[in-house]
Amino acid sequence: MQSGHPIPFLKNNPGLVLLICLYVLATQNTLGQSKFDIKKLQNPKKYGTEVKAQTKELLVPEYAVAKGKHAVFLKNGLRSSQFIAPKLWRNIKDTVYPYRVDIVYSRYPVRDGVYSEIYPLLCNRLIRLFELDPSLNDTNLKYRTILQTHVENDDQVNGLFHGVVIWYKTASEEAEGVEEADSLGTQKSLVQTEKSTQSSSADLIKTISSVRDNPLLNDSVRNLLDGQTIDRQKHIIQQYLTQSLSIKNNIPLNKRTPLEMMVFKKQIHEFLKFNPFSDSVVWKVMDRHPEWTDALVVNDWTGSMYGYGAQVLHWHINNYKESGVRYLSLFNDGDGKTTAQKVIGETGGIYTSEASDIPGILNLFNLVRLNGGGGDRPENNIEAILSSMERNPDHKEIILIADNFACIRDIELAYKITKPIRVIVCGYDKTFGVNPHLAYLAKISNGGLYTLNADIENLRVELSDKGEIIQNKDNRFVISMLNCTPKSVYELNYGKESFKTYTQLDSAIRDKSKVRKLNLSNVEMPQVPKQISQMKQLLALNLSENKIKKIPSNFRNLQQLKELDLSLNQINTLPRGFYKLKYLETLLLQQNQLTNLTQFFAQGYYLKRIDVSHNLLQELNGLNQLKNLQFANFSSNKISEIPGEINQLKKLVILDLSNNQLLYLPKGLIGLIKLEELNLENNQLGSMPPNLQRLRKLKVLNLAGNPLGEKEKERIRKQLPEVEIVF
């Protein structure tokens, strides 16, 4: 049959032809057209951005859904496109009416606030979805990509939902014309309030640029900055600001001339423009509480909090006749310290000033920002409050400007606070809820939580003694799902089990067959009691801060031991039997007199954390045997060389080699594919290995106190543009 000729029976049946044409038109209008081109989905490298543009992107803290809506959750996993239970949709797809599809990710990992979209994952999920049900590839359906934003580590991200969610109406709802309601528990974009966990060279350049544009910086200093490297510019500005702050000027604002006040207001207005914010919560709360007088304001001055700190200053200058703000304290979580360097209660990076010294405060804000950066997300809020109270005792109120998306590193110190803390909750969303640490702080201090529209005082919550909310009986707010439970990178296998911790040797001896955890720290013990070796079920043993010089050979009987703390003793060698403890996961030996650990390294396959800082180690031979090592602190020893086989530590996350005698580093260092923090402070390094860009997960690098030349510093910065580097 030749093309172009009508089928014979249709030629003689024009009515049937018309009927078929009408059916085709009706079918096209009913079924709609394909939304995604399958060929483009198969080429994400070329068409990934185009595919993504066909969806509506939303950022939420954590994917949550409104009650009363129908949906099928097809779980993929974090980096998978295969559906775990496709039958959940296959079993009902012919009886329901889909109207929306959500593709749910986590915005993780984030480097300096930048998330790199994984287009192959998006395209493959769509391909698998359309293989499951081709009818879902329809222009009549709404498609959204949902990115969960507040994830800090692998453990947290693995606990979230990742996959495809199909929202549908039942047949009765479709017949009744039930409208499609928003299926997401919270849609508010949190881009502005999301906290950047690390500073970078780009952030440093931005900070220096804003300081240079500040009218408080005189022309002679600006001229000094011309042609200098970023590090040199930072140093010059730090010196200038520090010197300026040494000149105190505490003239009350109501004693200033109108011209001076006009200049101050202009300077603060410019300062506000350089520090954007997402809402006006500080202004609103301060307006609502004129009774707060002689107030000490403690301000988290990191990342996304810059704009809220600027609001404090702006409100103060605009209301100076009635303002009750007397002192301003800023904290930056450690003046660039890495996570490994931060000690509870001694993190530092806390600055304070009289609120009447406007030029001084502006200089202080810039200095604190310039000195900050580095480390992890949690902040030292409690240390900042306690330190500020001590420095400025003449105050009546304490106001904390706090980040709702940052946990408090030192929450266990909150019991030391003796006055109510007025917590202004920045970045609060009523659906996401209140940071559990901020609620804990408000309750334990008999203070309150203050949001854009509400004052929540006399909180009805029950507390634990570990900085946790046990139960919330207060219907004025919900506790967010933010994970503020302290978790280390070396979480022990038995961590989820509840065992009694014995602290008295006599009772432990009586129950020796039952003892799992024994803590005999700081009891001036001269030697290890022989009865301990009979406690063969021991999982955790703490003998720190004693006067122990020798470890008995019968330690080999503790075959189940997973955590051992022998720090702050006088141990100079470990017995051969010690190396039988092959299931150890945590070994703390800091501040002893050890010279060699080679034999132990050969048996430490399960070891996840080791701290042998402040000893007399000269070498690390055999280190490559620690295949599961995640945290290692070898600082303050006499190590002059690192073995090249260090590249075999594929799980290492934090490595501290500061205060040693290193002259060079092996090329194998760049094989540490999971390394996030590297501390090499105070060594004798004149250069770093080539190809540093291969350390793709590195966030913090401390090279202070090494004889590195300017060219080498620039090379390091160029190869690690997104890493917080301290020279």
Spatial separation of the terminal alpha carbons: 82 Å
Strand content: 15-25%
- Count of helical segments? 20
Q: Write down the overall geometry.
A: globular
Largest sheet: number of strands, sense, barrel closure: 11 strands, parallel
Number of strands: 25
Name the strands of the widest sheet in spatial order.
Answer: 15-16-17-18-19-20-21-22-23-24-25
**Helix/strand/pairing category:** alpha/beta
Number of domains: 5
Percentage of residues in helical conformation? 25-40%
Radius of gyration: 31 Å
Mean pLDDT over all positions: 81
Quaternary structure annotation: single chain
Low-pLDDT parts are 1-11, 17-31, 185-200, 487-497
What is this entry, summarized?
With 727 residues, this protein is of the alpha/beta class. Helix content is 26%, strand content 15%. The chain folds into five domains: 1-31; 36-176, 60s Ribosomal Protein L30, Chain: A (2-Layer Sandwich), CATH 3.30.1330; 201-472, no CATH class; 493-566, Ribonuclease Inhibitor (Leucine-rich repeat, LRR (right-handed beta-alpha superhelix), Alpha-Beta Horseshoe), CATH 3.80.10; 594-726, Ribonuclease Inhibitor (Leucine-rich repeat, LRR (right-handed beta-alpha superhelix), Alpha-Beta Horseshoe).
